[in-house]
Design brief:
This protein has 495 residues and is mostly helical. It has 20 helices and no strands. Helix 5 packs across helix 20 and helix 18 (375-418) runs antiparallel to helix 19 (425-452). Bound molecules: phenylalanine. The site of phenylalanine (PHE) has 14 residues, from helix 1, helix 2, helix 11 and helix 16.
């Protein structure tokens, strides 16, 4: 049997895991969810979800990959052939997310160009909606494509193609510089925005907990989905990455470093965004609540504003958006690679470059719809449905598979045998009972809600096409695959 590839060092594995985790989810998605759910109301469920769901699950995904020495599909198959569809479902979710993730990466690219003369001016919100996206007034009205966004999307995929094509080694070298730099810049921005008039009001909005939100299932569900998104859980990516580790590597420590780095950066981004919002509210007639409710556009309204307030804004803006891209690109290509690996494993005789090219091409074509003038609405719908019924559902099924079929205790013994910090029986409980129960409850409630009222008040057809349609397609493929896999009689159980 061929020797499986290995990370050049343990540190590089952590770099790659942190690189995948830290991305647009931290600087784009997290702040907008905090804004959407009214600030501190979101923060508490988010942190609880991190400890109760995120941390145990990232340990589980690392352990699954490292123990089975296989990517998502292969690892689930080793637990039981009939479970391979769960792995496939994760990979399909990766593909759907990569389609719109690349579009947002494209927006960042466009902002490098706009940075050159701070083209956004005073009204960063108007600029983003009217000039950058040229958003149409209704969801059903597609008034063509935004040519700049299509071009930027194309460039994003070209970058991804060449990142993967040139091999992981050259990329590792780049990531060592491009991963820490945006973080330093984020802190530099914070040092400025913290002292703006109104900044404290923004912080109060961000941090003041609202205990009544704890009774709102929607807030909980959004917190959980954000944890999945930000820690790259339920995508199969962490399983795949860990499968390139030696079987005796420390799991708990890697999980701890990855999740703490990830949350730390999300919180820092949150501080930058909300101090700036405090300032924007101070200098305009809008309240922080109103400004914060910008949805997926929030980062593109707020960061340009913050950037134009610091000395040397042109050069720093250019650097900032380049950094944002480097943050996004390593996440994006880890998503793409998860998809490409699937085909590579199946079609071993086909050239790897061809496969990567094909996946990038389909990703580009699939993303085009999000560059239309109504694209931001479709993006919001797809993001909601794929994160809820893709990631969380697959995460739930994984937890049940490991907890009940493989055996949580057996997995914990393995984890403890290789890790310096030991995990206790609580982990078994979380994987077997707490996480499945919570996820079933939240998913069930959200499902009922999404059936009764159309998500986001969008027209029915759009939610059917970009939400339910995709989910049904994904589930049908996964179930079909599981069925197909369970057919052969020779069961190779080498667990
Ligand atoms: N975790 C990434 C982010 O927060 C998104 C992502 C998920 C990237 C899965 C790769 C794989 O932006």
């Amino acid at each position: 049997m061929q020797q499986r590839d290995r990370w050049p060092s343990k540190t590089l594995f952590i770099f790659a895991a942190v690189g995948s985790a830290v991305g647009l989810g931290n600087v784009w998605r997290f702040p907008y969810l905090v804004g959407k759910y009214g600030g501190g109301a979101f923060l508490l469920p988010y942190l609880i979800a991190l400890f109760v769901v995120g941390f145990p699950l990232i340990i589980m995904e690392f352990a699954l990959g490292q123990k089975m020495q296989k990517g998502a599909v292969g690892a689930m198959k080793k637990v039981d052939r009939r479970l391979s569809g769960i792995g496939l479902g994760s990979v399909l979710s990766s593909f759907a997310v990569s389609a719109y993730y690349a579009v947002i990466t494209g927006w960042c690219l466009m902002y490098i160009y706009y940075s050159l003369n701070l083209a956004w001016g005073e009204d960063t919100k108007g600029f983003f909606f009217n000039k950058v996206l040229n958003v149409s007034s209704t969801v059903g009205q597609i008034e063509g494509f935004s040519a700049a966004a299509v071009f930027a999307l194309f460039i994003s995929w070209v970058i991804v193609y060449f990142s993967i094509w040139k091999g992981v080694n050259s990329v590792s070298a780049v990531v060592q510089i491009t991963m820490p730099l945006p973080i330093i810049l984020l802190f530099a921005l914070l040092a400025r925005t913290l002292f703006l008039p109104g900044a404290m009001d923004g912080i109060a909005f961000f941090l003041t907990p609202d205990f009544s939100a704890l009774f709102d299932v929607e807030v909980w569900m959004s917190a959980v989905t954000q944890i999945f998104f930000t820690l790259s859980l339920g995508f199969g990516v962490m399983i795949t990455y860990a499968s390139y580790q030696d079987k005796n590597n420390d799991i708990v420590k890697s999980a701890l470093i990855t999740s703490l780095a990830d949350v730390g950066i999300a919180l820092t981004a949150g501080f930058v965004v909300f101090t700036t919002l405090g300032y924007m509210a101070h200098t305009s007639d809008q309240t922080i609540e109103e400004l914060a409710a910008s949805g997926p556009a929030l980062a593109f309204v707020v960061f340009p504003k913050a950037l134009s307030l610091i000395p040397g804004s042109v050069i720093l803006s250019v650097i900032f958006f380049i950094m944002l891209i480097t943050l996004a690109i390593d996440s994006l290509f880890s998503l793409t690679e998860a998809v490409a690996t699937l085909f590579e494993d199946h079609f071993t005789q086909v050239n790897k470059k061809m496969i990567v090219f094909f996946v990038c091409l389909v990703g580009f074509l699939g993303g085009l719809v999000f560059t239309t003038t109504a694209g931001i609405y479709y993006l919001d719908i797809t993001d909601h449905f794929i994160t809820h019924y893709g990631l969380v559902l697959m995460g739930l099924l994984q937890a049940i598979s490991v907890g009940w079929i493989y055996g949580a205790e057996k997995m914990r013994h393995y984890i403890n045998s290789v890790s310096e910090i030991k995990i206790g029986k609580t982990w078994d409980w979380l994987i077997k009972y707490v996480i499945p129960l919570c996820l079933i409850l939240f998913l069930g409630q959200t499902f009922i809600k999404n059936i009764i009222t159309v998500y986001g008040g969008y027209p029915n057809w759009s939610v059917l096409a970009f939400g339910w349609g995709l989910v049904i397609l994904m589930l049908a493929t996964s179930i079909g695959y599981s069925y197909f896999q369970s057919l052969p009689s020779e069961s190779k159980k080498d667990r």
